[in-house]
Design a protein that fits this description.
Layout: E1 9-12, H1 15-25, E2 29-35, E3 38-44, E4 47-53, E5 74-78, H2 82-91, E6 96-107, E7 110-120, E8 126-137
Parallel strand pairs: 1-4, 5-8
Antiparallel strand pairs: 2-3, 3-4, 6-7, 7-8
């Protein structure tokens, strides 16, 4: 396994619930786990992140974690099937923060299209799943 150059590590309030969410509902793969502290390295179609049970070690925190965790940021995660994620989340009673929406992002004279959803994990981290829908000339 090759490690990405940037791998977010998310502290979670309930490790088992978060692991279930990421693996069983969203389809992440467990690359490896540790038991003390509870920790998992996860991957999803080329994206990587780590989850760890919240602890009291203040060295690794900017402040007291409060719901929703990760305020002020979102994690864009590429996927090849937005609809499959939408269905899995609905079947598991996890609401979308924003349903599927097509967005176009400009790069010079080209627009890159993405079909995106926004969903919050059990601790409130905002996940933006994005499926490419092509490019077109910018006007």
């Amino acid at each position: 396994m090759q490690f990405n150059h940037l791998i977010p590590e998310l502290y979670v309030s309930d490790y088992k619930k978060s692991l279930h969410y990421y693996v069983d509902i969203l389809g992440f793969k467990i690359e490896y786990e540790r038991k003390n502290p509870l920790f998992a390295f996860l991957s999803y179609q080329g994206s990587q992140l780590m989850i760890q049970q919240e602890d009291k070690d203040e060295e690794w925190h900017n402040g007291k974690p409060e719901y929703p965790f990760g305020r002020g940021l979102n994690f864009q995660i590429e996927t090849d099937n937005i609809q499959l994620l939408v269905e899995s989340l609905a079947n598991s009673n996890y609401p979308l923060k924003r349903g599927a929406k097509d967005s176009w992002y400009r790069e010079d004279n080209l627009l890159h299209g993405c079909r995106e959803i926004l969903v919050m994990d059990p601790d409130g981290y905002l996940l933006r799943f994005s499926q490419g829908i092509g490019t077109k000339p910018a006007q």
